[in-house]
Amino acid sequence: MKTLARLALATCTVASLALQALPAQAGIIIYGTRVIYPAEQQEVVVRLENKGDRPALVQTWLDTGDLRSTPSTSQTPFTLTPPIFRIEPNQQQALRLRHSGESSATDRESLYWLNVLEVPPVTAGSEQNNQIELAFRNRLRVFFRPPSLPYPVASAPSKVRWELVPHDQGFALQATNPTPYHIALTEVDLLSEGKRFSKAPNADINDSLLTPAGDVKVFALPSLRNRPSGSAKVEFTAISDLGARVRHSADLTPSAAR
C-alpha cells in the first residue's frame, strides 16, 4: 500500500521524463464529475468501470485539498470501501462513501477530494524494452451538504455579487459568494456596448471555485483597458450538481457600475 501511495506522488514526475515508453492511457472511468453527499444520507455510492483491456489495481482515499496526500497521511470524517481492489476489464466497482458522524460545518457546505489511483499491471519484458507503466490519479470534488440550508443550491449562482474593479493597468470582475454553497464557474464575460470581454484562462483547478460564505475571486479581463461608459452585464457559466453547464446573466452592483 505504501508503494501505491508513493506512485501517486511520483506520477507527474514520471510523466515528464523523456523515456522510451508506450503511449499511456488510463482505463478506469469514474461516473460523474463531482460527488454530492447530503448529510442526511447514510452513504453515497460512486461507480467506477475499467474500460481498458487489462486488469488494474485501484486505491482510493479522501483528502481535504492537499495534492500530496496519501492514504496514510490524510484525515477526513469519512470511510471509503473498498480502499484497495482489483478491477477486471469491462467490469464495474461500487465505492461506498460514509460520513463518520464527526462534527462538520452546519451552516455551509464542506469540500473534500476523492482520489482514485490506478496502477496498471507490469507487462512482461517492459524493463528490458525501456518501457514504463504510469500510475494515474484522478481527483473529484466531494461536497458534504448539511441539511436545512436556507435555499436550494440551484439558486446560489444568481446570488453572486459582481463588481468591476481596477486590475493591472486594466480591469477585472470581482465575484463575491455570500451563499452557503460552493459555486464552480467556467466562462466569465463582461458584455458592454456590443463587445464581449472574457476572463483570462485559469492557472489552477480552483481558480474559478467560489467557496461558501464570503469568498472573493478576481477574474482579470485582459482586453478591457477602459471602464465602460454605458451599461454592462456579466454572463457566466456555473456547474450544476449533475455536472451540467448552466449559463447565467447578472448586473454589476450599483457601486461598481458608476
TrEMBL record:
Asked if Signal is a keyword of the record, the answer is yes
Sorted alphabetically, the Gene Ontology cellular component annotations on this record are: outer membrane-bounded periplasmic space
Tell me the ranges covered by the Pili assembly chaperone C-terminal domain, including all copies.
Answer: 176-246
Where does it mainly reside? periplasm
- Location(s) in or outside the cell: Periplasm
- Signal peptide positions (record): 1-26
InterPro entries (alphabetical): Ig-like_fold, PapD-like_sf, Periplasmic_pilus_chap, Pili_assmbl_chap_C_dom_sf, Pili_assmbl_chaperone_bac, Pili_assmbl_chaperone_C, Pili_assmbl_chaperone_N
Q: Which residues form the Pili assembly chaperone N-terminal domain?
A: 27-149
Entry keyword Ribosomal protein: no
Q: Name one GO biological process term.
A: cell wall organization
Q: Which UniProt keywords apply?
A: Chaperone, Periplasm, Signal
Q: Which domain of life is it from?
A: Bacteria
Homology family: Belongs to the periplasmic pilus chaperone family.
Q: What is this protein called?
A: Molecular chaperone
